[in-house]
């Protein structure tokens, strides 16, 4: 009989594309995941992973086995949800994915409250880009995801995934001290046409939103610096190297030398909680979503 934990490890590798990524998602070491895959290969007498360049790839047999593993994990989840629902209390393990600023600005308080109020609930968090969160939930890699989108860049919802609004996170334009716009009550997009911008790398939700929004004002943004972390963007602004559009969640107090100016209309990203439809009645999911909304 195939071992469910080993199938879970293979499924995680198929989703993340690497042993290291699977290990991070599962809370194991890469060595432990490799050992699980090796044992599964011996059980099935099948080669599951093969070298491809500097990385690894699933063999055709492994891809079929990973798809079956996803079905089995969904059945197990339904059984666990039914048991937890009968008890009426959040129990077991709850894995949560969150984008970096939510992981920093929202999740610490949420996780701490859940630990105090529900000691039988084992919550585990991992950072994940909003573009990937929906798939991680749909494929059963995580139980819950905190993600976001923008008004002109909505994120698609995968089949079988449900959502609830957590709240709206407004953004401000950050400018260096002494900047001509620093004393303004608000600025419009047209006022920013000749600025040097500090933003996240291409392909991220925030970068794509900024490019679309400023282009809609009739000009091509001058992107001078790219940094994934909001705190790095703030530091670059403080050094006088450009301006940045930074959300308030997880931003923290601004350092000396940086001013926040309201952009009109105010850009807002909306935060959501995502979970699989099959786990919608699970007490742990319901309590986590309630706590996220309350803390936000």
UniProtKB/TrEMBL annotation:
Keywords, ordered alphabetically: DNA-binding, Transcription, Transcription regulation
Domain HTH lysR-type as annotated: residue spans: 2-59
Keyword Transcription assigned: yes
Alphabetized Pfam families for the sequence: HTH_1, LysR_substrate
CDD domains for the chain: PBP2_LTTR_like_6 (cd08423)
Domain of life: Bacteria
Keyword Nucleotide-binding annotated: no
Gene3D superfamilies: Periplasmic binding protein-like II, Winged helix-like DNA-binding domain superfamily/Winged helix DNA-binding domain
PANTHER family noted in UniProt: LYSR SUBSTRATE-BINDING, TRANSCRIPTIONAL DUAL REGULATOR HCAR-RELATED
Family designation: Belongs to the LysR transcriptional regulatory family.
Annotated protein name in UniProt: LysR family transcriptional regulator
Species of provenance: Streptomyces sannanensis
Lineage summary: Bacteria, Bacillati, Actinomycetota, Actinomycetes, Kitasatosporales
């Amino acid at each position: 009989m195939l071992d469910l934990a080993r199938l879970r490890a293979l499924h995680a590798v198929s989703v993340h594309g690497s042993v290291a990524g699977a290990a991070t998602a599962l809370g194991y070491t890469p060595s432990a995941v490799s050992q699980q895959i090796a044992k599964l290969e011996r059980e099935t007498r099948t080669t599951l992973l093969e070298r491809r360049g500097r990385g690894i790839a699933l063999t055709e047999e492994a891809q079929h086995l990973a798809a079956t593993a996803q079905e089995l994990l969904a059945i197990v989840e339904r059984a666990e949800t039914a048991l937890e629902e009968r008890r009426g209390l959040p129990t077991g393990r709850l894995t949560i994915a969150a984008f970096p600023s939510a992981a920093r600005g929202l999740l610490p308080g949420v996780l701490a409250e859940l630990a105090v109020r529900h000691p039988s609930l084992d919550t585990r968090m991992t950072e994940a880009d909003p573009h990937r969160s929906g798939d991680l939930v749909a494929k059963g890699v995580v139980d819950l995801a905190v993600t976001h989108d923008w008004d002109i860049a909505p994120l698609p919802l995968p089949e079988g995934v449900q959502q609830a609004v957590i709240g709206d996170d407004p953004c401000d334009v950050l400018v260096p001290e002494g900047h001509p716009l620093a004393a303004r009550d608000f600025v419009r997009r047209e006022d920013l046409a000749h600025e040097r911008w500090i933003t996240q790398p291409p392909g991220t939700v925030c970068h794509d939103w900024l490019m679309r929004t400023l282009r809609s004002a009739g000009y091509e943004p001058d992107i001078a610096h790219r940094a994934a972390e909001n705190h790095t963007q703030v530091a670059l602004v403080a050094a006088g190297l450009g301006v940045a559009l930074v959300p308030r969640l997880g931003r923290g107090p601004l350092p000396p030398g940086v001013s926040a100016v309201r952009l009109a209309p105010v850009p807002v990203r909306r935060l959501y909680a995502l979970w699989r439809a099959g786990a919608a009645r699970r007490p742990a999911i319901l309590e986590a979503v309630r706590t996220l909304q309350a803390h936000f």
